[in-house]
Amino acid sequence: MIQSDPFAQIGFNARRRTGGGLMAPFVWLGGLIATALALTVGAVLAVLTAAAVAVIALIAGVVVFFAGFAFRARRARAAKAHRDEGVIDAQKVGDTWVAYGWEREGR
């Protein structure tokens, strides 16, 4: 019998057959095993992804921690260099202090 409407069998029940033959239980079991395997692989990949994100976050935290130390040391060194700028040597001559090695900016 030829169907006159080719779109008549589109839908959820379009592929359902009565009986299913001798291979139907084996096909169903194969689908069940494939589904379980896919779920297992997906779960393993999700755990590995979560572990990778945790390791990346840990390493980023360590980098930020050491960067804080570096910036603090840089600020301390810059402040010390700024304080020490100017007079290289000063001696008291008579009643006045004489500075050696001091130069004004722009001279």
Automatic annotation (TrEMBL):
Entry protein name: Mannose/fructose/N-acetylgalactosamine-specific phosphotransferase system component IIC
Residue intervals passing through the bilayer: 21-45, 51-71
Record keywords: Membrane, Transferase, Transmembrane, Transmembrane helix
Source domain of life: Bacteria
Source organism of the structure: Brevundimonas bullata
Keyword Membrane among record annotations: yes
GO MF annotation list: transferase activity
